[in-house]
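Minutes, project huddle
Topic: does the predicted pose make sense with FE2/S2 (inorganic) cluster bound?
PN asked that the exact inputs be recorded in the minutes so nobody has to dig through chat later. Recorded below.
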Amino acid sequence: MENAVKEKIDSLESGSLLSAEEFIFLLENRTPSAAEYAADKASKIRDAVYGKDIYIRGLIEFTNICKNDCYYCGIRKSNKNAARYRLSKEDILNCADYGYDIGFRTFVLQGGEDAFFTDEVLTDIIKSIKNNHPDCALTLSVGERSKDSYQKLFDAGADRYLLRHETADDDHYSHLHPPYLSLSNRKKCLYELKEIGYQTGAGFMVGSPGQTKETLAKDLIFLRELEPEMIGIGPFIPHKDTPFKDEKSGTLEDTLYLLSLIRIMLPEVLLPATTALGTIHPNGREMGILSGANVVMPNLSPPNVRKKYMLYDNKICTGEEAAECLSCLSSRINSIGYSLSTDRGDHIKIRRK
Ligand code: 5AD
Ligand code: FES
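Predicted holo structure (tokens), as shared on screen:
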């Protein structure tokens, strides 16, 4: 490895605010030895902050109905081949009860932007889950809403919110999304979520069509400025019924290297080894952990809807029961010297309070 790369990774570790050019330099010079150096450093940093615990989040994909038409996403509204579903309140509460019994202490309600789930409907569901399981954290992942709506959901008991920014470059954003969606609104939502007090998650796909080292440098700088508590990154994977069906997937190597750089830059961030990473490589999630990740998000959705929540092709774990995934993941994580934790897994700064 070039000495200059090592020095740049070291200066990222010591808190230097790298410029876009410096991030581009790091991305251009990803050799296997640079990646190994970064992964090793990232792993040590994660161990120092969070130890050997890997946090689990039970993902409840409660609706695949979406009013948006993002070009990369399998549940975009123009996809007429998607079999649409919406879980009832009862279904959702049953998922949470079952998840609680098998050890989950965080539930993630994720769905398309489905107008059925008004503030009223969602607050009722949030209150019931929090009432049934007061020791659990509740994360929402339901897209762009007004600040007033975010506030109501927070007041009802939601603790965290995931809203990937997708890309921090305006032109790239419009290459991935229809004209009525904008990066500026996405950023506004993220800042509002933080202001309200959510533990907030941003993030992006690695290798999305039109992504360059320049746009990635902007992503890293945006993340440093926003300083989200959580960052979700995973490879882009084409879905057969979208405009990007013939595009290439993001790579394992790029994703792992970015996970490491993010961990080094933001030592305390909660960083999942995503299902998409597990989809492009059979040991993708383990490698993600060894590159600095510290969260996994197994699927808690009822088995009969799993295959319908297809954001991309060949998604793993759509045939398994949640308990099967949990024991599978547990042995995978143990095999690399880590263990699944049944803690709520809040960001470390929240626990210090
Ligand atoms: N490949 C990988 N990730 C995708 N997402 C949506 N579509 C795809 C795809 N084709 C990601 C987006 C979104 C998150 C819920 O899933 O980044 O924010
Ligand atoms: Fe789902 Fe391994 S994690 S089967």
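Observations noted during the meeting:
- Residues 2-352 form a domain with the TIM Barrel fold (CATH 3.20.20.70).
- The chain has a mean pLDDT of 98.
No decisions taken; revisit at the next huddle.
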